[in-house]
Amino acid sequence: MHRRGTSRTTSGWAALAAAGALALTACGGGGDEKDPPQGGTGQAAPRVELPRLTGERLEVAAVWTGPEQENFTKVLKEFEKRTGAAVTFVPAQDPIVTFLGSKIAGGAPPDVALLPQVGALVSAVQNKWAQPVGPEAQAQLDKNYSAGWKALGAVEGTQYGVYYKAANKSLIWYNAKAFEAAGVKPPSTWKELVTAADTLSASGTPAVSVAGADGWTLTDWFENVYLSQAGPEKYDQLAKHRIKWTDDSVKQALTTLGELFGRKDFLAGGASGALSTEFPKSVTQTFTGGDRPAAAMVFEGDFVAVNIAQTEAKVGTDALVFPFPAVGAKAPVVSGGDVAVALKPSKGAQALLTFLASPDAAEIQARAGGFVSPNKAVDPAAYPNDIQRGIAKALIAAGDDFRFDMSDQAPAAFGGTPGAGEWKALQDFLANPSDVAGAQAKLEADAAKAYGN
User: pLDDT tens digit string along 147-157?
Assistant: First the structure.
């Protein structure tokens, strides 16, 4: 499924992210943590007016768990305080379209849902579940968001969603002590990454912690390699299934990825260990154990910081970050995000969308860490350390120069379903990286079925 707002160049954000993140790898502890302003819950004076909703009850569904859910709950608590409404968080399961479908069929849809895939937004609109945003939320969007982020929340020219959360999915986080012990420096090219992985593994620390139990992380690995190696034009074509997954460009990307996945000594626990590792563990095991962790590096977006916070490691000193290395001429930058959509035509649902489109909501979660907002009005000082502040500034400075996560643009059956489609095909590839042709054939068969062509 095609999402508008994705056919743009990557150069602006890529350059900014690379410069910012590389500079931050040298950050010490100074200025790493910032105390929030004193008084109340720590946020600035309200900048958006909300209606009184005394007695109204709202349900908000999202697939978030753990610290991410806890931090978002702080945002909902502030909404309750300012409106008088009572808000309940409803944990959802992937694929969220299936989860919402069962709720709606049972006559009990949540008031608002946070959708992690563009394809899910399109499905919600096609199924006539979603409500267009009201004038108050639209005013906040027009004031605080770039055209690209607004377009991603629109379907056929009608605004349905508010992109509350964004992500730069082109970052590799590393254990500073492990790198220092092995004498390794952050690589800037794929060749340098493989060489660094070899050195790290030879030193006794596996190079990479791969969250193979969560197929979505494998799609992000592929997308970064593919965008850098094949280029933006091919990326857009594959995202829309205008070229097949049996294309030679996919073969090249999988072969390149196999240079890392194919070395069992590179992976924490080998291929079998990677396939049984879920995303939170992939992070925490990289930042425990001093200079002998389970792995020296872990790949994923800025939200990794939430999981690092569950360890004794400190972002900016023990945990550092570098941009995903360039495979081709330019380093890739792949973005993602969660879009808030009203599923009921209620005053409360629209008020919550208005709040989520304001800097007031985003700054609460920004202070908690592991969160980046596409909202231009968010105060950079709200971010808790220099690394997350730099990532956020790069996102805003890039404007509309980004490529959105490819699997999130796809129909959920292909790009967003555990144990099926792209997730399963890439897990099978991780188990046997030498079978490039087999992986391509499976990906194409599943894509053709999901896209209907």
Answer: 999 999 999 99
